[in-house]
TrEMBL record, chains A, B:
<dbReference type="InterPro" id="IPR037018">
    <property type="entry name" value="GH65_N"/>
</dbReference>
<feature type="domain" description="Glycoside hydrolase family 65 C-terminal">
    <location>
        <begin position="699"/>
        <end position="760"/>
    </location>
</feature>
<dbReference type="Pfam" id="PF03636">
    <property type="entry name" value="Glyco_hydro_65N"/>
</dbReference>
<dbReference type="InterPro" id="IPR017045">
    <property type="entry name" value="Malt_Pase/Glycosyl_Hdrlase"/>
</dbReference>
<feature type="domain" description="Glycoside hydrolase family 65 N-terminal">
    <location>
        <begin position="15"/>
        <end position="267"/>
    </location>
</feature>
<dbReference type="Pfam" id="PF03633">
    <property type="entry name" value="Glyco_hydro_65C"/>
</dbReference>
<dbReference type="GO" id="GO:0004553">
    <property type="term" value="F:hydrolase activity, hydrolyzing O-glycosyl compounds"/>
</dbReference>
<dbReference type="InterPro" id="IPR008928">
    <property type="entry name" value="6-hairpin_glycosidase_sf"/>
</dbReference>
<dbReference type="InterPro" id="IPR005196">
    <property type="entry name" value="Glyco_hydro_65_N"/>
</dbReference>
<protein>
    <submittedName>
        <fullName>Maltose phosphorylase</fullName>
    </submittedName>
</protein>
<feature type="domain" description="Glycoside hydrolase family 65 central catalytic">
    <location>
        <begin position="324"/>
        <end position="690"/>
    </location>
</feature>
<dbReference type="InterPro" id="IPR005194">
    <property type="entry name" value="Glyco_hydro_65_C"/>
</dbReference>
<dbReference type="GO" id="GO:0005975">
    <property type="term" value="P:carbohydrate metabolic process"/>
</dbReference>
<comment type="similarity">
    <text>Belongs to the glycosyl hydrolase 65 family.</text>
</comment>
<dbReference type="InterPro" id="IPR012341">
    <property type="entry name" value="6hp_glycosidase-like_sf"/>
</dbReference>
<dbReference type="Pfam" id="PF03632">
    <property type="entry name" value="Glyco_hydro_65m"/>
</dbReference>
<dbReference type="GO" id="GO:0030246">
    <property type="term" value="F:carbohydrate binding"/>
</dbReference>
Length: 768, 768
């Protein structure tokens, strides 16, 4: 744990006391989003202290020219990244002409922040003494509407405590923003027009190169003691910005507030020529409803989300707060309404990793969205990749593959590869397998096999082709080998025969062949279309089969474990427990070569394979592998502890599972990795959810049936979760002595609990 | 071959006809240098076409901030590179106010360039028709004096052919230059003062960060029909530049010329406060001597160099031109007078590779300098590394090594690592072995064992320490293994047990232990000092021995060859001959991952080891290894063909040896690698020399004796070379039927020819 200033609370993230050192961390933790746009919890008023400004629009990206020390053939020309968008939250505040700036105030007292996860808003309150000795009490509330997802709203309320004063609010829009994560310090935006219509303001901008057109807009109201006031205003325009200025006299003890409605409309959803009109409509909707009604709607909308997605934990407030924070942030990042969007590793909380799509989505996020949303949401995530198939084929062609083989990118916004580090970009190809695994996982869970003939099969064929071309036959071993890859454990680069990758490749081919048979039988039309389009023939499939049947897997007879890769036994194996603490985290303390030749594992690699293909192995085999690899795993990826938590639970090691759970669920709140200032680890939050549902709850799907194997950590009284399984909602509540199941819906279903079949009647509790 | 415009000639590099497409290539090929400074063959007068401006001062460097896509722990903060220095060659020319600019002339005829290697100058002549229809004949001669190495001289002669005209010469100095190879497009120089004293001009500059102070200076004379004229001049100063303007009327058919003396004096050799005075002295020396005398001195000085270093080839003009070009460029780059200087891979002909020091010096250049210069020159090269020992220890510490272990940098100017690509910087550690091999090679050749107790041993101990710490014990193999390295074949990264590196490591330790014994016996004083300083004890040496005795070497029983690295047999082995030509060079056609997993070898790796340690293996073993690796070697490093040429000659495959020789000797002249515009491959030129002396000549040193085993390529009538062996000069002339030896000096020596001992009497020919 690296910080512990977040107050434990079941439903809110709370901070008390103002500390400039914590501003950037809190800007990440208190981020808000609505699945379409999101922003760091920057202050509305000017703040001259250290801060990391960020406001992001899902799907709006910029191709930043690649920066690289030594160019390698095949590197992409640019890195497509989500970019800091024009600022609409700004409200500068002056009291008797003195600017409010928490960095320069004489005193800041009673500073509180709340991220209200239940109702979906961010609130900040404090009492500040300005340099001119005026003391004010401030309460600023802000949210991004999930009902009207182009809209945000701010209520900035001030009470002057020690005298009468003139309060001046200056709400503004600013298109002249910069990106922290810019390779060449270039500007990414061009402001096209700064425009006002009455008290409506608009800044029309476009991203350079990609030409996304965005209209950032605002409209404000001034209130005195909660009564709307008719206040004159002036406006100031610059090339990039628009500021309205509202002045109002407040007597001591009176409350004045500015309500600002603002947001973005983009040409992803509107015609370019309609952007002002579209924004104006949203503003009319907002001002008509008013702040309170909008907030009420927000609360109700979040209630609905929580109704389905909530996990309760009794007896452990920090664990409860942790899991809700994870669920809340996931929902802020992606709500599954738009198949063009995806889940960036930092969501809308920072710029690291370019805000782009990684294999995290397929490997970690799909289960959460499948179980807590309508199954269309997961289908949209699959379709996102289906829509990128042509680009994935182009990407493979750039690397010398042929015949429609596809390599999905490591990092992408638009389907093209953005990453430029050869050992990742060209070699961390296991990501391709995750695309297929996600399809398999989706069909297993939802039963929606139709997706495969419709879309999935084309992806699967292109990926099977890739694997077959990517291996080569080793005469020496009389097997197919896969040279030069990087597994999920990125602390090994350019290894040969990474077990996970080889296993996944073999499985992808076999699953594809098996699926082709099914489609052939049951979807003749689709079969014909796909086979025609892909020109797949028996000869090629025979080659695939040959590879799958003769794939090489490194194995140690002595340890009875599959080896992470060739040569693993040449390493010096020293358990992490024996490594001096001063050496950790090794990614900060050791040079890269030392990390590479050490035995230490960044994240589950062989065990990731055992997680994906649990039913291919016995529990005893799992145990052997867990005991071999876990002691040398440093979990320096946020994606690692969850898999270990689930496997420890399966092995009956509840205490260890709980330790891994804690590490994943409060990773950001307690800033385990000393980097929360850069943003939150959004995608791994889905792993936290899995730790509970699949880990402690032991939920699995097999043969169209749910099964459970519940355990509970010692400190917990109960925990509960809900899953949507094929349009029926199942609530599971676990305590030490029993598990209670409650099924919503119309039909009885059979589930399996601790190995025994159990029939659940709808709308009826069942205790096991 | 990619270009063939260079005219064959035994003593000169010649170009005929003006082609804007060839300008950058010729700027590289016609580069001049004097071991202290050097420059690309840029035109003196303004040229508005594509050009790559470069003028370099040995040892003056700039630490350019590292540019990297994804930072890895251990990367250096900057890349120290030789930088483009202020321009002193500039002479703008106006005829009746019309600027001479070959890019905009109406006509350019009879364009000729000559790099006169015998006499050491560059000359360019042409007839140009200016836009104003005036036709002029120009002859511009330039050289950098190797007699007075701070001085350069230009004679720019013009004859107006079709009318009388006013000729205006504007010689200038310009400190406002930029670097083509700048990571962040920053300026590297600050101009401190622009100053004139009469017709002497000075631009005082310093490099930013490193604060090298450089005074760039000039003085000019105007001549009419070879008579010095007293011409008035005006001067123009800007913040960075100084221009003198001389106008003279020339009648049709008269020759006017400007003679410019110019160059650099730096605070590497003078007090900062004396830089103007020092420059002024050089100018007085130059103007007093005059251009013709300076050129005569130059010719004589080069005669002396050629007297010792020349290799003649009768019957093959292109081969003759090639070898002389190599010898000439090596001498232009490094003359061995200053132990602070070294041999950059591009010398003074370009900016690629930072102009810095690589292992090329130790592995490839030392033999040339040992044999063609006084042995002090090679000693200076060794001392250069000795002086960097502390930095090499710091460098190793950064990577986690302790106890005085040293890792010499991959790329350096001042002893610190500059390179930033983990697979090279941290892993291409065989370079450390080359440092020790160079000491061994030097002592073997010169007999100067004193160097070891004096300096070499400390380096050897620090490197032995590194190897012992760098390996780890593999229980699995019951041997020491070396994980995560890159061998000389950079088309493999992060491999395990690279045979060459392991072999070199073992040898370094053994040679160090053996040497310590010798020093202990014969240099008691030094022994005590070194052991005290390094705190080396028996216990540590026992550990070294343990490692050396139990080092693992990958070997294939089936092929009876040492394997380049672990897992090499898993590759698909397809001889280069079977690879479609359209796929080559693979470094331009293939993505990096494909190169890595292919079997193709960039440059000699196992064979490099066989070259270094030829007497450790039988000829039969060499043959096996040569036949295994050569067919899959693509020679995409300039350092590769020479080793193969030597080994092919040793195996009696003279024809193949000749093919490799051609490839190395005319690499730049014929632009085999399509990159000569960036500069010449200086360090590999020493390999060309080895191809003849060690390859065809079969020269070796063993037990303080020279041996020869001459062969001759079919097309050659004779070839001859000279070597300085322990202060006696031996000339060897080989023809198909005999070899003639001629020994200069006072004492008879015994040599070995074709396996038989032969006694050579001084100053007497001996035919074998």
């Amino acid at each position: 744990m690296n910080q512990d200033y977040i107050q434990p609370n079941e439903w809110s993230i709370l901070e008390e006391g103002f500390d400039v050192e914590r501003v950037k961390s809190s800007e990440s933790l208190f981020s808000i989003g609505n699945g379409v746009m999101g922003q760091r919890a920057n202050f509305e008023e000017n703040y001259s202290g250290p801060s990391f400004q960020g406001s992001y629009i899902g799907g709006v990206y910029y191709p930043d020219k690649t920066k690289v020390g030594w160019w390698k053939n095949g590197y992409p020309e640019y890195f497509a990244k989500v970019l800091n968008a024009p600022n609409w939250i700004g409200v500068n505040v002056f009291i008797n002409d003195e600017a409010l700036d928490l960095f320069t105030c004489k005193k800041v007292e009673d500073f509180k922040r709340e991220l209200n996860m239940k109702e979906g808003f961010h609130r900040r309150s404090f009492i500040a003494t300005l340099p001119n000795e005026i003391e004010i009490s401030v309460k600023a509330t802000r949210f991004l509407s999930i009902v009207e997802d182009e809209l945000g709203a701010i209520d900035f309320e001030i009470e002057v405590l020690n005298s009468d004063a003139e309060v001046r609010f200056e709400p503004y829009l600013d298109g002249g923003i910069t990106n922290t994560d810019a390779n060449w310090e270039e500007r990414f935006w061009k402001t096209l027009e700064v425009k006002s219509e009455g008290n409506k303001g608009f800044v029309l901008s476009k991203t350079l190169k990609t030409e996304f057109h965005v209209n950032t807009y605002m409209q404000s109201e001034v209130l005195l003691n909660a009564e709307k006031q008719d206040v004159d205003f002036t406006e100031t325009k610059t090339a990039d910005s628009l500021t309205f200025s509202y002045s109002i006299k407040a007597e001591k003890g009176q409350k004045v507030s500015l309500r600002k409605y603002a947001g973005y409309v983009t040409d992803m959803n509107h015609k370019r020529s309609d952007l002002v009109e579209a924004a104006s409509k949203v503003l009319d909707y907002a001002t008509k409803a008013g702040f309170s009604k909008l907030l009420q709607d927000q609360k109700e909308a979040w209630e609905k989300i929580w109704e389905m997605a909530d996990i309760t934990i009794e007896g452990d407030v920090k664990a409860q707060q942790g899991i809700r924070f994870n669920i809340f942030q996931l929902n802020q990042t992606y709500l599954g309404k738009d198949e063009r969007l995806n889940i960036g590793p930092k969501g809308f909380t920072g710029e690291k990793y370019g805000g782009s799509t990684y294999w995290d989505t397929e490997a970690y996020c799909i289960p959460f969205y499948m179980a807590t949303k309508d199954q269309q949401v997961a289908r949209n995530l699959l379709t996102y990749r289906y829509n990128h198939l042509d680009k994935a084929i182009e990407n493979a062609e750039k690397l010398g593959f042929t015949n429609g083989a596809a390599l999905y990118p490591m990092v992408t916004m638009n389907g093209e590869e953005s990453h430029n580090e050869w050992e990742i970009t060209f070699e961390e190809i296991h990501r391709n397998g995750a695309m297929v695994y996600a399809i398999y996982n989706y069909v297993r869970y939802t039963g929606d096999f139709d997706y495969i003939p419709e879309k999935g099969l084309e992806v699967m064929i292109a990926i099977a082709r890739f694997w077959q071309q990517r291996v080569n036959f080793s005469e020496h071993r009389n097997k197919y080998v896969m040279l030069g890859v990087t597994g999920p454990n990125e602390y090994e680069n350019n290894v040969h025969n990474n077990w996970y990758t080889n296993y996944l490749a073999k499985w992808c081919i076999e699953y594809c062949l098996e699926t082709i048979e099914k489609v052939k039988e049951a979807y003749a039309e689709d079969y014909k279309r796909v086979m025609g389009k892909t020109r797949l023939n028996e000869g090629e499939m025979a080659k695939w089969r040959e590879v799958a049947e003769n794939m090489y897997f490194p194995y140690s007879e002595k340890h009875e474990v599959f080896l992470q890769q060739d040569g693993f036994l040449d390493k010096e194996i020293v358990p992490i427990a024996d490594l001096d603490k001063s050496q950790r985290p090794i990614n900060q303390k050791w040079s890269w070569d030392r990390i590479l030749r050490s035995c230490y594992i960044k994240q589950a690699d062989v065990l990731q394979g055992f997680y994906f293909f649990e039913d291919h192995f016995s529990k005893k085999e799992l145990e052997k592998h867990f005991d071999y690899y876990e002691p040398i795993t440093v979990h320096e990826s946020s994606l690692s502890p969850c898999v270990h938590s689930i496997q420890a639970a399966l092995l009956g090691r509840t205490k260890q599972a709980y330790e891994f759970y804690l590490r994943t669920s409060r990773l950001d709140l307690d800033d385990y990795n000393k980097e929360v200032e850069q943003g939150c680890h959004i995608t791994s939050m889905a792993g936290t959810w899995m730790s509970i549902v699949e880990g402690f709850g032991g939920m699995r799907v097999k043969d169209d049936q749910l099964s459970f194997n519940p355990t509970i950590p010692e400190d917990w009284k109960t925990y509960s979760f809900k899953v949507n399984f094929r349009d029926q909602i199942l609530k599971v509540k676990v305590s030490a002595d029993k598990t209670v199941f409650y099924l919503e819906g119309d039909n009885a279903i059979e589930i399996n609990v601790n190995g025994k079949a159990v029939e659940l009647q709808p709308n009826q509790e069942l205790e096991v």
